[in-house]
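Hi R.,

Here's the chain you asked about this morning:
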Amino acid sequence: MDYTLIGKTVPTVEITLNKGEAMYSQKGGMSWQTNGITMKTNARGGVMKSLGRMFAGESIFMNTYTSEVDGAKIAFATTVPGDIVAINMEKHPNGFMLQKGAFLCAQPTVDVKIAFTKRFSAGLFGGEGFILQQAMGTGTLFLEVDGDPIIKKLEPGEVLKVDTGNVVGFESSVSYEIEMVKGVGNILLGGEGMFLTKLTGPGKVIIQSQNFGDFAGKVLSMLPRK
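And the predicted structure, written out as tokens:
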């Protein structure tokens, strides 16, 4: 499998598959394909994993695209302006954690399932920080990023606090928890939300410069109301 990233504003990853190779994505993720590719739709991983994907903001049913010829091409695009990051799972034998909505597509040898924080109370009140997915296996995983990706390499014990909506993913060696912003005045007047995701190294962290949920909320607030 080879791939090429195309475009800058709303980028696309175009993947070249040989006979027998495949990619899967959530429904609606495919942009174009050449002849020689077949599609199969199913609840990948069974009912429970499918329900988990629903809670994580992904589609219940997944589409698997398999090439019947050498050199067939298929492309997957981001849903909003941003970027695409490729994760080589061989470099992450213990898995890679994803924020909900970050999954774009992957090889069938990559398994993505819902993951819950150990501190249920933190997740219950932490909004976007609660629902994460964990990718395991081998092969290549593609993530979609709102805006630009920023990659941080945390040293052991190093702490990074991020708005929950700006976390894309991180290595499983990174521990995380949701903490409330201190001070009633800061919560009510600060405009930054009530919660932050506290990430503690060691490990790699991927952040996105844009939180599309916040952007959509600002656009909605500007629309005329009757």
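Residues 118-129, 184-191 have pLDDT under 50 and may be disordered.

Let me know if you need anything else.
M.
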